[in-house]
Amino acid sequence: MSEDLTPEEAARRAEYEERARKLFSGPVTFLLSAPQLKFLPEPTVPEIAFAGRSNVGKSSLLNALTGRKAIARTSVTPGRTQELNYFDVGGGDDTPVQFRLVDMPGYGFAKAPLAVVKKWRFLVNDYLRGRQVLKRTLLLIDARHGIKPVDHEIMEMLDAAAVSYRIVLTKSDKIKASELEEVTQRTLAEARKHAGAYPEISVTSSEKGMGIAELRGFVLESAEI
After folding, report:
1. Main-chain phi, psi angles of 95, to 5 degrees
2. Residue 18 parent element (H or E)
3. Nearest to 82 by CA among 58, 52, 116
4. Is-contact 50 140, C-beta < 8 A?
5. What is the pTM of this model?
6. High-pLDDT (> 70) share of the chain, %
């Protein structure tokens, strides 16, 4: 969701969207899964992380952004991803990797053992605080439910870690337009209360393609900060 843009701002965003479209139509490959920080790749290129509650549609959004059907696994079992999963964007025979997408473990496990939750917190918190190449985090919120208390906890974690993040509403095609407008405005107002939150939010639907091109451009722009 964007405020009214000047012609210059609109042109700049359109340029990023087109560059991102071309970039994501090229090589996007799975690199590795890191269950602990010692397994992370060398911090040589920018990273954009994706965070969200289990079953928020994170894998579907990654697939939509990259234009792949199954680069990120989707599962009907919430909390399946318990590692930091890395994907290289760009690269090839003659060009280097441009940046990396990091799929963070889903949070908000309703039935997870305490030890699993504790492991998640240590892994994610240490990653957020210590990763200098992390340019921005995308915090995914299910548009049908809005920001829940567990999401507030993650926002506070991101604020404390001094990590810049942007809220992304997912599954926006699943509710009525009037309800979507209400949750969008409520989410935007909450974002503006947080020091680390980007002052705009994204409204997306992986299934319908809503907001995907704009978010793709934002990812590229964030990587180049």
Report:
1. -125, 145
2. helix 7-24
3. 116
4. yes
5. 0.92
6. 92
